[in-house]
Amino acid sequence: MDTISKLKSWVPEMVEIRHRIHSNPELGFEEHSTQKLVASLLKSYGVDQVYTDFGGTGVVGVIGGALGSGKMIGLRADMDALPISEENKFNYRSQNEGKMHACGHDGHTSMLLLAAKYLASSRQFKGTAIVIFQPAEEGLGGAEKMIFDGILERFPLDGCYALHNMPGIEAGHFAFKKGPIMASSDRLFVTIHGKSGHAGLPHLTEDPLLATTHIYQAIQGIVSRCYDPFDPMVVSVTQIHCGDTTNVIADKAYMSGTFRTLSKVTRDSLVAKLEQLVKYTAKAYGLNGEFKLGPISHPPTVNTSDEVDYAIAAATDIVGHNQVNGSCEAMLTSEDFAYFLEKVPGCYGFIGNGKQPDHSHIGLHNTKYDFNDEILPIGAAYFIQLLIINN
Question: End-to-end distance of the chain based on CA atoms, in angstroms?
Fold first, then answer.
């Protein structure tokens, strides 16, 4: 309770910081102002070392405990915004047209800053806290870039934790799950090469759209007939493009979309099946088919058992057993914290952002979404408690 009381005394300051970040949203790898602000605040809090050489626009702070040696624990928050135009009218709404903190990364950053301020001032823990402010979570591979830049070589973490706000869960409640908690994410791109010609003389052409539509239908057949229905999977074709006018059969057709699974084995199997489907369906119509993945792919986010136990214990210490769900359902959205969890034991969890009085809520990536400032000290206290639980 002493921790919460101290954190609450700093909340007005942290709300002001959160609103400042919200009003100045920056997209992935463009978080220059946010990086400068976070690094400056960490230095003012007395954090031992502050680094800005990971992930281009990332920030890493090192805080040593005063109670002796122990584990090196990573605490991660994401910083980037989305290319969305905000519809909210409050005074801290986005000032950058077409950019918005519609996923709460401004709140995640502020929660971790609040935790860092407390850890740096109290030092009442063993080991070392590594606070990681990550850029470019929204589909651009910021976690992968930080790892490529050597963050895990410089800081060989014993465990790593991240927390995401979740509208629809009661404010301040927590949810965790052992094993896969979020899905892999891949972008698929298909090109079918045909032969153009007059739409009134289709027999003299090689129609790429015909093959493309058959591939579209067959993809859903793969999902429903080639995989166990208890093995979660989503394949969504979101775009088909072909031709420019009504009386010409085009020479190319394009299809793109995304697919998500909770298993790397399933994901790799699906990639192989999609490659075969595109190649041989096109060939059946005398065409050439090309299947490619996008430049960024996220693996499934897989929590390790011991670290989920630590997370549950830390959250329970803060809010009590009745407000902690230790076996929530997995989601088929994705999260690039998965890259850290491929290398380091850890836990990705959710903190409730709250509901409206009628039990409705405004979801993530919505033009009217906003982070709930009331959960700032709760999330910060959870991060702080993780240092104690792990040591």
Answer: 20
